[in-house]
Amino acid sequence: MLNQKDIIILAIESSCDDTAVAICKNGKIICNKVASQAIHEQYGGVVPELASRAHQSNLVPLVDVVLKQTGIELPMISAVAYTAGPGLIGSLMVGSSFAKAMAMSLDVPLIGIDHMQAHILAHFIDDPKPTFPFINLTVSGGHTQLVLMKSEFDAEVLGETIDDAAGEAFDKAAKILGLPYPGGPLIDVHGSKGNPNAFDFPISQLPGLNYSFSGLKTSFLYFINKQKTQYPSFVDEHLSDIAASVQHAIVEQLLIKLKLACKQVGITQVALSGGVSANSYLRKRFADMGIQLGWTTYIPDFQYCTDNAGMIAIAAWFKYLKGQFEPLTASPYARK
Ligand code: KG4
Ligand code: ZN
Question: Domain 128-299 belongs to what architecture?
């Protein structure tokens, strides 16, 4: 049931290889849909040109599905939100052009959202919600950041990766093992059946709150190649233990720095978000660490961990309340 005062935000996310559309009604996500792009699997990674083209063909039908499913008609929409960046510029331009055209034709405000901020604001979709200030570990395919959140849009980056992102580390490890792209979720599946201490992979000793995963990747590559030369069936025979051990090395580094950041800032409200927060081993270790250290911990529901438009919609809701709109001349950005 819709009354005249309802605020309906249509949100579009197209920063990488997932086309996503969501609707926020008065601060609640009432529909959240994703169309993934299988085309990249055969190339072992996202091909930007193909991603843009797939967004182009997926977006209009997906918006249609979302509107039909919610019973929302175009004149009911109060604002249109889109991911402004960071991401693949061609992909971002498909989403932003669509959002601008829609906002203009409906004569409603346009709201641009930062993808990384949205990953954090995903915590405000469902209860329980964190209270400010809190520390968020954002782990995705493109970023790994420790962020001190002071309010919805006041964020201080305390540390970040100096090379690969945690998701990249998962995906590259999977590729070395011959698993298809995106390999992160497959490392999770195989790793859950293995022993995390079966093999010893290095954990970066970088001082401070920054992360580094390139040393682990190189050492993992050399180890696997050497083993395969001696025992060609090494990976097949030990896949679960290898996956569990490399997963352990990635997660260990993530949590060591998170613990340090919380200690340094003196904070016990701690949150985890981004695609890699879908990882079951990380979720368990994070929750256990929280219990051990007396933290109150937060992880978004699965559908709001990996790329989605629900997180764009909730971030847009906060901007809508503040009247923070964008002109139609705004352009997306590939990086900050
Ligand atoms: O946030 P996201 O969907 O997209 C970016 O903003 O990058 O994150 C995607 C990343 C990929 O690297 C993917 O392999 C990883 O998240 N990922 C996982 C799992 N699910 C997604 N990594 C490990 N375990 C998972 N279950
Ligand atoms: Zn993301």
Answer: 2-Layer Sandwich (3.30)
Render the burial of 216-232: b for 16+ CB within 10 Å, e for the rest: bbeebeebbeebeeeee
Helix axis angle for 166-176 and 214-230, nearest 10°, is: 10
Q: Atom of ligand 1 at shortest distance to CA of 165?
A: 12
The residues lining ligand 1, judged by C-beta closer than 6 Å to any ligand atom, are 16, 140-142, 167, 170-171, 182, 184-185, 187-188, 274-276, 278-279, 306-307
Task: List the pLDDT tens digit at each of the 336 positions of the chain.
Answer: 556 689 999 999 999 989 999 999 999 999 999 998 888 888 888 889 999 999 999 999 999 999 999 999 999 999 999 999 999 999 999 999 999 999 999 999 999 999 999 999 999 999 999 999 999 999 999 999 999 999 999 999 999 999 999 999 999 999 999 999 889 999 999 999 999 999 999 999 999 999 999 999 999 999 999 999 999 999 999 999 999 999 999 999 999 999 999 999 999 999 999 999 999 999 999 999 999 999 999 999 999 999 999 999 999 999 999 999 999 999 999 998
Residue range(s) in the chain whose domain bears CATH number 3.30.420.40: 8-120+306-322, 128-299
CATH number for region 8-120+306-322: 3.30.420.40
Top mutation candidate among 276, 285, 305, 311 for ligand 1, by most atoms within 8 Å of CB: 276
- Asked if residue 108 lies in contact with residue 101, where contact means CB atoms within 8 angstroms, the answer is no
